[in-house]
Design goal:
single chain; 2 domains; globular
């Protein structure tokens, strides 16, 4: 019994000493904020470097893919690769326009796996600038006029990103759009 009392007393003293030391040596809020800020800045810098490396890797992959397919692609500042291979005669697309497109979306893999096609699911109709489609698709369509046929290669950051579409497009996929801009309505 006496051993139990000594053991319990020692345990209580250790716990109290631990609590007091935490209280006495606790950092000030200002120091905590400064350290947290420095940590988050270092973390942000690491994320930026990682994203730049992924974008560079994607760019090298797309360049090789386009060369293998003998496509004459141009690149926008955001990283969209595009080729307009048939010029139409209609009006130029602009933000706010309601557009109708016929398209085929495929993966940039060795077999160009088709994920979605207007032949299967009908033409896409949507308003430019309202979202609901890939950022890269909207950006590409703004380069076109009614009747144009084009090819867009969207790196992951302009397509479905890290997650894919949770259906047919895997995470971090480079995708290819074959597009015909059928109609533009103001």
């Amino acid at each position: 019994m006496r051993n139990k009392i000594i053991f319990i007393t020692a345990a209580v003293l250790i716990i109290l000493a631990g609590c007091l030391s935490l209280r006495l040596f606790r950092r000030t809020p200002t120091l905590q904020l400064r350290e947290t800020g420095q940590t988050s800045n270092r973390h942000a810098e690491r994320l930026i470097r990682a994203n730049r490396a992924l974008i560079e890797k994607d760019s090298l992959f797309i360049n090789a893919f386009a060369k293998r397919n003998q496509w004459q692609m141009q690149i926008t500042p955001s990283g969209l690769w595009y080729e307009i291979y048939h010029r139409g005669t209609g009006q130029k697309a602009a933000l706010g326009n309601l557009v109708e497109i016929a398209c085929t979306l495929s993966l940039a893999d060795s077999s160009r796996t088709v994920c979605y096609s207007s032949a299967q699911s009908g033409n896409k109709i949507f308003q430019l600038g309202q979202g609901g489609v890939e950022t890269g698709l909207e950006e590409g369509l703004l380069l076109l006029q009614e009747g144009d046929k084009a090819r867009f290669i969207l790196p992951p950051h302009l397509a479905h990103g890290l997650a894919g579409d949770n259906n047919l497009i895997p995470p971090r996929s480079v995708i290819v759009y074959e597009v015909e801009l059928l109609k533009i309505k103001n």
